[in-house]
């Protein structure tokens, strides 16, 4: 396949993009840390609209397994971008960013506080820091990437990528199938390394939000226990039947929804490959490992702080909470939010 080189554009902010100078609250943290419950509590007290920033909760197929708020919770306060896409669809960070910005604007028009909540760090970073716009990759290139990976395996595919894009090959592990293929697709389709496109992110800056950020960072033992308990509750609530319905759709395995935590081990159980107890244990381990990766990401990021100097430097915009969310820390969190809103207004 011949390599076609596409110029990386100097992206600029859209001329019709509104000035977003009203408050936004961002709530981040690993799975099972209590983000959703906190968002609802704040929405009830501050006239808020809860906007989803979880890459799996955007799909309607797995309401239980992805921990989407139930009907009773969603009836309490307004929720947006939960279960809005079909499982056969693909939601990128850029697509989510556009949807989220519209929901933020709608909340402001309704004189409500937008509360963006989720653990997908790339989504939150795209909103606050910007995103490089990589051109659409054709189905032909995607298919070629999959075929090459299936033929060479992880180690061989990484070696092939190293010939075309040594920088990205050095960044990735040979077992990271999805990211390896993505890097290969981009350099194959555009002639530029994915690293180059990512470096161009400053050309598409984050939205000009007056954002306060709350990050829940509980101790590892407490977090892991919450992950295990949460998955057992999902099973009690019907997660297995939900995955059975998803499997019956026979979606392509590379669809994001098919990679949701717990899907693969539960499908393996339904196929008769492993007993249910083992499937649950594998799903719990998968969830704990994901929570660990999320914690590491949030620990190394400051998603709520703009790289540009603040016009109001006295505003406290970031609060890290070293525990699971509970009523015991509600007053501390509400005090932080009150100070932010009052300072911004004054």
> Strands of the biggest beta sheet: in what spatial order?
3-2-4-1-5-6
Shape: globular
Q: Separation of termini? A: 60 Å
Sketch the topology as an H/E string, one letter per element: EHEHEHEHHHHHEHHHHEH
- Our Rg estimate from Cα atoms comes to 21 Å
Poorly predicted sequence stretches spanning 5 or more consecutive residues: 1-19, 305-313
Whole-number mean pLDDT: 87
> Strand share of the residues?
5-15%
Largest sheet: 6 strands, parallel
CATH topology of the largest domain: Rossmann fold
Notes on the protein architecture:
The structure is a single chain. The protein contains 13 helices and 6 strands. 49% of the residues lie in helices and 9% in strands. By secondary structure, the chain is α/β, with parallel strands linked by helices. The termini are far apart. It has a 6-stranded parallel sheet with strand order 3-2-4-1-5-6, sandwiched between helices. It is globular. Helix 3 crosses helix 4, helix 10 crosses helix 11 (263-270) and helix 11 (263-270) runs antiparallel to helix 12. The chain folds into 2 domains: 23-131 and 204-345, P-loop containing nucleotide triphosphate hydrolases (Rossmann fold, 3-Layer(aba) Sandwich), CATH 3.40.50.300; 139-201, Histone, subunit A (Orthogonal Bundle), CATH 1.10.20.
């Amino acid at each position: 396949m011949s390599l076609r080189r596409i110029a990386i554009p100097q992206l600029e902010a859209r001329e019709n993009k509104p000035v977003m100078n009203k408050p936004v609250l961002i709530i981040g943290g690993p799975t099972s840390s209590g983000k959703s419950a906190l968002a609802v509590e704040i929405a009830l007290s501050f006239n808020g609209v809860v906007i989803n920033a979880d890459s799996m909760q955007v799909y309607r197929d797995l309401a239980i397994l992805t921990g989407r708020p139930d009907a009773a919770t969603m009836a309490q306060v307004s929720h947006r971008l939960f279960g809005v896409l079909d499982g056969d669809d693909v939601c990128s960070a850029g697509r989510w960013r556009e949807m989220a910005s519209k929901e933020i604007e709608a909340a402001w028009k309704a004189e409500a506080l937008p509360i963006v909540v989720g653990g997908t760090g790339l989504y939150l970073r795209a909103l606050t820091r910007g995103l490089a716009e990589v051109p659409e990759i054709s189905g032909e290139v995607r298919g070629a990437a999959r075929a090459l990976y299936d033929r060479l395996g992880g180690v061989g595919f990484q070696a092939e990528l190293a010939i075309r894009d040594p920088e990205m090959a050095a960044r990735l592990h040979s077992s990271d199938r999805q990211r390896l293929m993505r890097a290969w697709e981009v350099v194959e389709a555009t002639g530029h390394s994915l690293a180059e496109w990512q470096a161009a992110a400053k050309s598409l800056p984050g939205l000009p939000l007056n954002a306060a950020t709350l990050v829940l960072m509980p101790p590892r033992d407490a977090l892991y226990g919450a992950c295990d308990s949460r998955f057992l509750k999902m099973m009690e609530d019907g997660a297995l039947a939900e995955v059975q319905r998803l499997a019956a759709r026979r979606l392509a395995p590379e669809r994001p929804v098919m990679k949701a935590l717990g899907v693969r081990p539960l499908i393996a159980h339904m196929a008769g490959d492993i007993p249910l107890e083992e499937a649950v244990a594998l799903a719990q381990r998968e969830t704990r490992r994901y929570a660990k990766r999320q914690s590491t990401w949030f620990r190394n990021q400051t998603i709520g702080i703009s790289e540009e100097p603040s016009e109001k430097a006295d505003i406290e915009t970031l609060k890290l909470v070293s525990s699971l969310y509970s009523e015991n820390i509600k007053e501390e969190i509400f005090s932080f939010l009150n100070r932010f809103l009052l300072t911004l207004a004054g």
